[in-house]
Amino acid sequence: MSAGFDWGSRLNPERRSFLKLLGAGAAVAAGGGLVELGSGGQQAGAFPYEPYLRDDQLSTVVTSCAHNCGSRHMLVAHKQGDVIVRLSTDDGRYQADGAYGLDTEAEPQLRACLRGRSYRARIYSPERLLYPMLRVGERGEGRFKRVSWDEALDFVARKMLSIKEQYGPTAILDQAYAGASWGVLHKSDQIEGLQARFLGMFGCRTSSWSVPSYQGTAFSSRMTFGTTQDGNEDDAFAHSKLVILWGWNPAYTFHGGNTFYYLRLAKQRGCKFVVVDPQYTDSAAAYDAWWIPIRPNTDAAMLAGMAHHIFTENLQDQAFIDRFCQGMDPGTMPDWARGEESFKDYILGTRDGVPKTPEWAEAICGVAAADIRKLADLYARTRPAALKASWAPGRADHGEQYSRMAAALQAMTGNVGVLGGCAEGVGKAWQPESIAYPHDEFANVWYASIKSDRWAHCVLNYPEVKREEIGLWPRQDSLDGRIPDIRAIFWQGSDWLNQLTHINKQLEAIKKLELVVCLDSTITPSGLWADVLLPIATHFERHDVGLPWYKGHYYIHRPQVIAPLGESKTDFQVFTELAYRLGFGERYNPRAGRDYFEHNAAVDEAYLRAWWEGKVQKKQGVTMSWEEFKARGVYKFKLEQPHVAFREQVEEGKPFATPSGKIEIFSSRLAQIKDWKRTQYGAPIPAIPKWIPPFESLNHPKAKDYPFHMVTPHPRWRTHSIFHNIPWLQEAFSQEVTLAARDAARLGIVTGDLVEVWNERGRVVVPAYVTERCLPGVVVLHEGAWMDLDKQGTDRAGNPDFLTLDAPSPAGAFAYNTLLVNVRKTLLQHRPAWQVEATPRSLVFRRDD
N or C, fewer C-beta in 10 Å, the chain? Predict the structure, then answer.
């Protein structure tokens, strides 16, 4: 800072007067022997901080978040030149007829959370991937050298051709996901994404058919309602008289972004709240909820006990059941299945002689039978009531049975298709037009598809692998049943090595591959195990449109806010250039020429304009022009009435999208499967919801050696593993394991002690947090921490997926919350972040040799 800098032009008069008085006061306090600071008219030679630039000194650009945090809301970038100085969010002024402060129930502000507001630290992070790199050390050692784009892409193209020729059409595993590149044009996705289309057109692709967050729940929604679009828009919660948050903590995990706003409205209007969860969560505190602590993975049993009370007390909505349900009771069974077991038969124990009474459920789930009856009675007698069966309890062995059981209760109480009720499972609501690039040719093409977290099992045991072990999808051609010979992985927008179950098994498998390519904007834990790192522009550095996440009815324009850092390119640029090198570039990107890798702006604009005019305007009745949308930055739909899933079915008689046209508590599809090994499920699944014990639980004999059941919820300060390396968030939140005070006292553990948490699959080191807000016998460790291994293979950062198991659950549910562990104090090293002594780890792994 120069001595002649004119602070008078940067500080307001009040601030200058304050500093003058402060300086004078300091001199008086020192006895007057020092030169008075701020007096005498001299100019300061130094100043403790650089004041913020005012908004009128910056240009302002509307954009949005781009990750799977549950919302994807507005960000406003304030920049000077080509540098983002700070980020703010929606304040009401950007929509049509908007004004500062506009925020209504029908048209709420789309406010970003603390993760989005911290995004500037991610753009300019020391871990930012800026140049193409090739591995020069052993895989996983993290030693790379910088190379040119030509050298990197030539290497990838040669390896792809060689692998396809030698190992066939299933040799490349597609592990794209929506972690970092979610937009209508630059899209990473398992099915509709750019990588899926690229590898499909190349003719060498094994896909992953399962979604880690909610696969068991998605199965339930499809079997029960015929669709995953079973969600209300969140404004419907404001009309509920009772909300049961089952395994859901909306203070941490959004399902639409403005969820907390509408739940607060419901509370203000007299709604009662119940939380069923092993933890007393922040949401339970915020809504003054009745907390019912439950043993993990026993939710289906408790729901069955509630159903028993509803049936035996005749509290069910029989008129609704008779009109809309199949298989709820003997009278609603289809003619072709007369004599088969109905849901009511199972609950009352008619066939197996075991009535699923509240007392039966209490022995399994640890919830008092009186509380089970009380909750069942409250739910059945309160209209409308929303049983929000969240995804977390379904991320477990046989997690689909919890979701199906919850759907049965939603239906038997008549809370489906009514305002203030709830039919969620998956919870997809209003549907946007989500694709701007060509996706008709070779869309959704795979030559094999396996369950996502079984890839390591496939690689390690090939060719001695049975199709049911990996969830191999059935086909109608000569490839049906052929086990994929996986020799390469492409990661696009995903950090799956860090995020899938049983990481140690993945680390063993990845050493056997011949090519690992990582396309990302950040050097992630997965990237350190890659052969090729390709720097991808963030959504601040490319042109796109942001979409809501499963809920919300709006579009947000995402212009290129700043130029791509380093040598970053967009996903579309990279795949287009690779497609040209492999011989199908014109088909892959028909609007572009070979110069797209260097000049993409006009092409991207053409795709986005065509999407807006040909889809959004024509199909959704939007009259706002593309140019006005770009100028405003956001388009918010004003719905005539709250969007309620299945309103048309219940009010107008439109059939459900199931084989019977009804809500199928007894599933037609499941009941008619003859050969389960020729399905992706691999093992029988009952036609009606049932309680099936998981492979690990506190009720299992294994609990003698591993007496704690761990759950791995989503943290507030990360989106899975994204944002883990943001220093601001690290300072605010720590990765720590939560223990009940009773358990901690027995083990001699107090808050802040380092503990090791282990089972036969792995070991992690993490600080302890002791609380009364956790059920004894349960420990909590949030998912997503960036792994950091010592030489013995212990994870020093506290990633729980070193402890999880990749065993398949029949309907595809990921068993993130089915794990037993032990805990003790430790002297092992803990490394809380990827910064040690303020030296970013990225600098250690960037090599020029």
Answer: C
